[in-house]
Design a protein that fits this description.
About 35% of the residues lie in helices and about 20% in strands. Strands 3-2-1-5-14-13 form a six-stranded mixed β-sheet, with helices on both faces. A six-stranded mixed β-sheet has the order 17-18-16-15-21-22, sandwiched between helices. It has a two-stranded antiparallel sheet with strand order 4-7. It is built from 16 helices and 22 strands. It is globular and about 65 Å long. Helix 2 crosses helix 4 and helix 14 crosses helix 16. It has about 500 residues and is α/β, with parallel strands linked by helices.
């Protein structure tokens, strides 16, 4: 019997990852290509979509070479992508603007204006919080500032849509990526006409909305040759990285929550139907025609640890750097840290939010600050999780993925703060495996999304320490009060 493999292409903010798996979820090979960023003005954050397209082609090619497989053994590829990017494209499909990504804050004044007027109505229709991250607010900024590429654009799309257009000549978008634009109604599974009118664009300028299992065929032969794949190999739409990270780690049933922490972070749960939060603390993004993912994202994950490491001019690798925190007991001897260095999305949804160390004394050392930052990141996730509980109920099982999940110290901290067993996959590429599994569903190789649970290699769960949990429960009460009190200063 011939061997069969599947690939997940994870188009992230920091990098593009191409991961090849066998049908049971074992990682065979991976390749990562780093993405560059541009900051033309304070608060702006852009990327070059052409660079990312080229990186994606090379990542696929190199992953196949590293795996040592024949092109006919790769049976499908599924897409995963970061949400909220926006670029302007001309009639020929050429970008005429950089990709403005989720971290860009230039549309903050537009977001504040919407919040103060029709924000509740917009949120109730879309389930997407009013925030500068969304293409909806970016388009408002483009319209109000007479952004030249906006005026000349034939189409508006995300980086993922741009790749698909380059490779297949099609303009299509899956439910989840459409939902993340802030222009999509998840109940109707269609663009919201009122919001298109507000942004001054037409539905013809947006892509056709399709399910995540839609199969793309007919890749351009020169692209296929460059990748080293068969031109007949099917590609499958996939979804946004959040939905697929849940799928890839098996958090797909009621009561199953996934926490992802890489550069940024999120806590999410998949649900049937649409669940809109009256307090507007969480998002509700579509996944399939009858399911959504509810949760909250944070701007401040591993990037905050990188900031501290750079600030301290610590040249060690991350495992040694984080290891210093083990010298300190839970609570960092009185330091509480609000991790809002990049502004914040959930739970405060305030781009002007700032980070803060509280309770610093002359006796504190480097290791106290490292532990306080780790605890602050985790308390923030816990606070978002409490908002999620109001909509989806108390979590029955918590799965963790992302780069920070490689730290045993942090996994134990998660278990202690959440007072729950923490489940971790052997692979840290949950979004890529979710994309690959979606491809298998799309081509009919497997029967359902739920069947992925039989095909995820898992580690032993991390159990909470009861004494640490007691300490953290008391500390969290102070953290939450501090977080809510600080809002008035932002």
């Amino acid at each position: 019997m011939s061997r069969e493999f599947v690939m997940g292409l994870d188009i992230g903010t920091t990098s593009v990852k191409a991961c090849i798996f066998d049908i049971k979820g074992k990682l065979i090979a991976e390749t990562e290509k780093m993405n560059s960023f541009h900051y033309p003005e304070p608060g702006w954050s852009e990327q070059d979509p052409i660079e990312i397209e080229r990186s994606s082609v090379l990542a696929i090619k190199e992953a196949i070479e590293k795996a040592g497989i024949n092109k006919d053994e790769l049976i499908a590829l599924g897409f995963s992508a970061a949400m909220h990017s926006l670029l302007c494209v001309n009639e020929e499909g050429t970008p005429i603007s950089p990709a403005i990504i989720w971290a860009d804050g230039r549309s903050n004044s537009q977001a504040e204006a919407v919040k103060g007027t029709v924000g509740s109505s917009v949120y109730s229709k879309t389930g997407t919080p009013i925030h500068p991250m969304t293409p909806f607010n970016k388009l408002l900024w483009m319209k109000e500032t007479n952004y030249e590429p906006y005026k000349e654009a034939a189409y508006f799309m995300s980086i993922k849509e741009y790749l698909i257009q380059c490779w297949f000549g099609q303009r299509v978008i899956d439910y989840s990526m459409a939902s993340a634009t802030g222009l999509f109604n998840p109940a109707a599974l269609d663009w919201e006409s009122e919001l298109l009118e507000m942004t001054g664009i037409t539905r013809e300028q947006l892509s056709e909305i399709v399910p995540p299992t839609s199969v793309l065929s007919g890749i351009k032969r020169d692209i296929a040759d460059e990748m080293g794949i068969s031109p007949e190999m099917p590609f499958v739409m996939g979804a946004a990285d959040g939905q697929l990270a849940n799928l890839g780690i098996g958090a797909i049933l009621p009561g199953e929550v996934a926490v992802s922490v890489g550069t940024s972070g999120a806590i999410r749960q998949i649900n049937k139907g649409v669940k809109i939060d009256e307090n507007q603390e969480t998002f509700c993004y579509s996944f399939t025609a009858d399911s959504t993912i509810v949760g909250g994202p944070t701007n401040n994950g591993g990037i905050v640890l990188q900031w501290l490491k750079d600030l301290l001019n610590d040249q060690r690798d991350f495992s040694d750097f984080l290891g210093d925190a083990e010298k300190v007991a839970p609570g960092a001897e009185g330091i509480l840290f609000l991790p809002y260095l990049n502004g914040e999305r959930a739970p405060v949804w305030n781009q002007k939010a700032k980070g803060n160390f509280y309770g610093v004394s002359i006796t504190h050392k480097k290791e106290h600050f490292i532990r306080a930052v780790l605890e602050g990141i985790t308390f923030n996730l816990y606070q978002i999780g409490k908002a999620l509980e109001r909509l989806a109920g108390e979590p029955e099982k918590i799965y963790v993925n992302g780069g920070l999940a490689r730290s045993p110290l942090w996994l134990q901290m998660m278990a202690d703060i959440f007072e729950a067993e923490i489940y971790v996959s052997e692979s840290h590429h949950s979004a890529a495996w979710g994309a690959a599994w979606t491809a298998l569903v799309g081509i009919g190789k497997v029967d359902s999304f739920e069947d992925i649970k039989k095909n995820i290699p898992m580690c032993d769960p991390v159990l909470p320490d009861k004494e640490n949990s007691k300490v953290y429960k008391a500390l969290y009460e102070n953290y939450e009060k501090l977080a809510r009190d600080m809002v008035k200063y932002f």
